Known about the structure:
Largest sheet: 3 strands, antiparallel
Order of helices and strands: EEHEEEH
Structural class: alpha+beta
Oligomer: single chain
Strand order of the largest sheet: 3-4-5
Amino acid sequence: MQVNNIRIDGSKTRHFSPLSEKFVGGDVLTSMLSDGWKITKEVARVEHYFSDSRHINVVELQLAQNNKLVQISVIVNPFVEQLVG
């Protein structure tokens, strides 16, 4: 699969459950895209702060497949930035 000039290797998949993960990495997003999910909307970009002023940047995305919708929060890194544009 090719998305924004990034080749996605569909042979390595990663399961996602909104019940067990608050944030996911780019590997989950690429697995979902390889499985046929499509990004339908960027919902928000959020900074989540932890103790000692540490934080992560997260992009919240809505994905759709076969009349199913799911919203995931993906930890931002350069790969994810290029993938979601």
